[in-house]
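Hi all, long-time lurker, first post. I run a small reading group and we've been trying to get comfortable going from sequence to structure in the token notation. Rather than ask abstract questions, I figured I'd post a concrete chain and ask someone more experienced to write out its structure so we can walk through it together at our next meeting. Sequence below, copied exactly:
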Amino acid sequence: MRVLLQRVSRAEVRVGERVTGAIGTGFLLLVGLTHADTELQLAWMAEKVAGLRLFADAEGKMNLALDDVGGAVLVVSQFTLYGDAQKGRRPSFVDAARPELAIPLYERFVAMLRERGLKVETGEFGAMMDVELVNDGPVTLWLER
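-- Answer (accepted) --
Happy to help. Here is the structure in token form:
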């Protein structure tokens, strides 16, 4: 499982003209899943995201988590995180999980975030999505498990 996490002051995802998810302060998560991902990877990632202290406290130090700032999470599926462009000019996506595996994993990950008390919005799995965000920082992390 690979997650590109961006701390945002706002983010929105649209499919066509329809907004499928929007948040204010929080994290935008671009989520890639692979064939070997299990409940263990999902649980580890959900716990990591919920507990990361990436927001400034009164002294300006990154010491506050999502709960501390009333933040939310926008989760967007992103199979291209498993793109391999080492050879040739067109990336290979053979390491990305096929939809029949990825969709239940994605939905379970979203559920795990919600089980931790987080407000979660989502994109639409497999759709062509437009993602708009305003970085807060910028703060961007690559998480993998």
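A couple of things your group might point at:
The domain at 2-144 is CATH 3.50.80.10 (D-tyrosyl-trna(Tyr) Deacylase; Chain: A;).
Residues 1 and 33 are 5 Å apart (CA to CA).
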